[in-house]
Specification:
Blueprint (H helix, E strand, L loop, with lengths): L3 E3 L1 E3 L2 E3 L3 E7 L2 E11 L2 H19 L3 H17 L1 H12 L3 H24 L3 E4 L5 E9 L2 E5 L7 H12 L3 E5 L5 H12 L8 E3 L4 H10 L5 E5 L2 H12 L4 E5 L5 E4 L5 H13 L11 E5 L3 H13 L19 H16 L3 E4 L16 E4 L15 E7 L2 H9 L3 E2 L1 E5 L3 H10 L4 E4 L15 E2 L2 E2 L9 H4 E9 L1
Parallel strand pairs: 1-5, 8-9, 8-11, 9-10, 11-12, 13-14, 13-19, 14-17, 16-17, 19-20
Antiparallel strand pairs: 2-3, 4-5, 6-7, 7-23, 12-22, 15-16, 18-21
Length: 479
Amino acid sequence: MATLACKNFFNGRWETGVTTGISTNPSDLDEVVAEYARADRNQTDLAIRAAADAGPAWAFSTPQRRADALDTIGHELLARRDELGTLLAREEGKTLPEATAEVARAGQIFKFFAGEALRTGGERLASTRVGVDVEVTREPVGVVGLIAPWNFPFAIPAWKIAPALAFGNSVVFKPAELVPACGWALAEIISRAGLPAGVFNLVMGSGRQVGQALVDSPLVQAISFTGSVGTGRQILKDTAERGTKVQLEMGGKNPLVVLADADLDQAVDCAVQGAFFSTGQRCTASSRLIVENRILDRFVSRLRERTGALKVGHALQRDTQIGPVVDAQQLQQNLEYVGIAREEGAEHLVGGETLERATRGHFMAPALLLAEPQHRVAREEIFGPVACVLRADSYEHALELANDTPFGLCAGICTTSLKHATHFKRHAQVGMTMVNLPTAGVDHHVPFGGRKASSHGSREQGRYAAEFYTTVKTAYTQA
């Protein structure tokens, strides 16, 4: 397949960078997917200035104009889902069905926010004073810097860019350097949607140059970041003095509780999907499988068999269930955690080794371990196809283990007990709960986010996105 040439986009023009980078196919390291322009701080500042200059006119544009632009973007994403899904699978390593579904989800997100652009509401309230009217309205924040991760290179940018534009903000978008072609392909579609020059800008490059310029700029009123806990906390520190609005989605170490009364086949299916699909490279992955002791042996036996039978291979092969790890660094980290777990006394059940296939790639057999709560594999986010099983004496013990983590993104439970399911939904210290469903797998029209070290600021997605991308104004009028 042809190598793409990807440029930056700011102030309505495609621009070269100061250096050039490449992205390779993790399923076939001999294939270069894209050569892309890498910007520096100066070019990022030009993009920010363009967004600031274009912002006021876009903020006062009609809701219909914004809705039409977003609907156009969403329509093209859906129409080209197969083509763009293939690009995603080549560049990030997600299996072709997962990649195609992600592009479709991005299209649905843009179409949802096309509707939200027309539904931005307000309130008219009675004042405590005679003859005074009170109106509460929402206005755009201004220039927003959007820093996206590599693991969902269409969906996560979509759920940041779409609401930002829908509510009248101007955007500077930085995709992850592992997936520049996906970021460029999305930007190319947006560039043809009729937005005024400078309203949307794409700047590719390193976090040290592009990301830090966004964080440091006084012209950027809001930053939405998805990535590591360490980087997120540093962004919060760097922007605190200026009072920049910050939204952070960071790590997860998500539990799936399996009680003795669960449908065992359903529970194993939830565990396999949640822990290993998308190569475990999801912040919602269920990497801690907390199983009631009465069914532990049966559950582990079935899960070990299912895990060992998973088909690992090239992301574009139709029978592949688990694609490659995204890059060599992530693969090495995954392998190191498997080694650390064994050194700490965890029982190695299956997987955890590199695999050779017809093409050179970052292929790894999904790893399953029987661990203790204090083991690092049970406490630290790995972000790969590595899961551990923990024993629980009872539902109460399982809930205690589920909450024993600095993270709080999502948690699942498999049970036929309405009592336990209801209690778990209320007492799990997370932003999202799943009952008899994999922890990884959320809808595009409802809020997404967590608690504790997993998230900071208001929720992403759905109608709740307005909380971040708008500011509230209260107006008083004397009749």
